[in-house]
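Open question from group meeting: does this chain pack into something compact, or does most of it stay loose? Before anyone orders reagents, we agreed to write out a predicted structure and look at it together. Recording both the input and the output here so the notebook holds the full record.
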Amino acid sequence: MVLPSLILKLTCHDQPGIVAKVANYVAMHHGNLVEFAQFSDKLGGKFFARLEIETTELTIDVQDFMDGFGSLGRSLQAVWHFRRLPYLMKTAVLVTKTDHCLQEILWRSKLDELPIEITSIIGNRDDCRSIAEQAGIPFHWIEMDGAQRQAGFVKIQELLAEQDVELVVLARFMQILPEDFCAAYSGQIINIHHSFLPAFIGANPYTQAYERGVKLIGATSHYVTADLDAGPIIEQEVDRVHHFHTPSDLVRLGRHCERIALAKGIRYHVHDRTIIDGHRAIVFPD
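Structure tokens returned:
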């Protein structure tokens, strides 16, 4: 059971006394610090932190506690964000044909490993409809071939707005998102792709990897930006490749890496364990 709590994420210029000041504010109001993860970036001169604060013994109202932190936050010239626990993040999953990443998300959500509410599954193909129906989740098939692509993305954004979606997961959604879509959901879209694809572009990447005798295969979950596959990296997963592995074995290993990397990426985001800093993501693992 998750006790009533707050997650606080904070970013500011690194300076003496930040930890003491924040901890003192929590203690002053009888909050219980369950976790205080921090990182001082000596190269960039920045301070990053994630706190989890139990609020059952607070001497003031939770909203007053969050509002009152503003004086300290402004004095630190910080950017900060509170989230109340427990919560479920409204999430839409976008798919095309393959279902292994979708199945992983559904399974981990069912196990309560991912505190998300899947509002819908949206596909530019109809292949995953039966999986959505079996899970009791609405499925929307959006035609996006050829001239219908732009109208298709407009329809997707309308659905996301109607459902108050906070997170969009591209679970092997084989479409490039337009710039306005990326901007509208900046920091709220997570994608999964093969980490070796920059070296093996074009058709049949696994065959190319096999022919070159790669020794590692992997996948990367990252935030989506207008720059294709160049957004801040959240998690990467790798597996060893041996000489006896065939192209089909590489596909199997790649799928495994994709499932794990995507699930971890979603988990870190939903638990507010990521802070985007320019082209990279600071991740506080659990």
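Observations to bring back to the group:
Residues 247-270 form the longest helix (24 residues).
The chain has two domains: 5-85, 89-283.
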